[in-house]
């Protein structure tokens, strides 16, 4: 099992971006609005797309794997906490059920005794 620190650690990968820094796309949009043809706007949109180097792709993949690993660990922890909660609830309900069964038994015995007392009194009055 890996520690939390190892799980969250992102391996350092050299990031070299092809084509220099990324532009925001406002310039291409502004050119399209200034009256250039739709094909020029489409070409500008394609040019705006950032070409990812293999190192950048690998870095993004590793970050995604790391996020996935952390998310899976958190899900396992939530599940473990939920199961612990359920186990406590089961114990409480079993205890409550046991108490109710004991009370039911006591009340049934009491009811039976009262019926016998009642029958004995009724037979006494009938005999008189």
From TrEMBL:
Residues 58-121 form the BZIP domain. Keywords: Activator, Coiled coil, DNA-binding, Nucleus, Phytochrome signaling pathway, Transcription, Transcription regulation, Ubl conjugation. GO terms for molecular function: DNA binding; DNA-binding transcription factor activity, RNA polymerase II-specific. One of its GO terms (cellular component) is nucleus. Residues 18-46 have a biased composition (Low complexity). It is found in: Nucleus. Residues 76-117 form a coiled coil. Residues 1-11 have a biased composition (Basic and acidic residues). Transmembrane segments: none annotated. One of its GO terms (biological process) is regulation of photomorphogenesis. Residues 1-65 are annotated as: Disordered. Belongs to the bZIP family. PANTHER family: TRANSCRIPTION FACTOR HY5-LIKE (PTHR46714:SF5), TRANSCRIPTIONAL ACTIVATOR HAC1 (PTHR46714). This is Transcription factor HY5. It comes from Paspalum notatum var. saurae.
């Amino acid at each position: 099992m890996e520690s939390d620190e190892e799980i969250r650690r992102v391996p350092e990968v050299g990031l070299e971006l092809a084509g220099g820094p990324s532009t925001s796309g406002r310039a291409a949009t502004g050119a399209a609005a200034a009256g250039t043809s739709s094909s020029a706007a489409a070409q500008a949109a394609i040019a705006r797309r950032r070409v990812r180097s293999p190192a950048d792709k690998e870095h993004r993949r590793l970050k995604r794997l790391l996020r996935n690993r952390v998310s899976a660990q958190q899900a396992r922890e939530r599940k473990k906490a939920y199961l612990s909660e359920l186990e406590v609830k089961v114990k409480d309900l079993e205890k409550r059920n046991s108490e109710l069964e004991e009370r039911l038994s006591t009340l049934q015995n009491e009811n039976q005794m009262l019926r016998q007392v009642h029958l004995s009194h009724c037979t006494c009055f009938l005999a008189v």
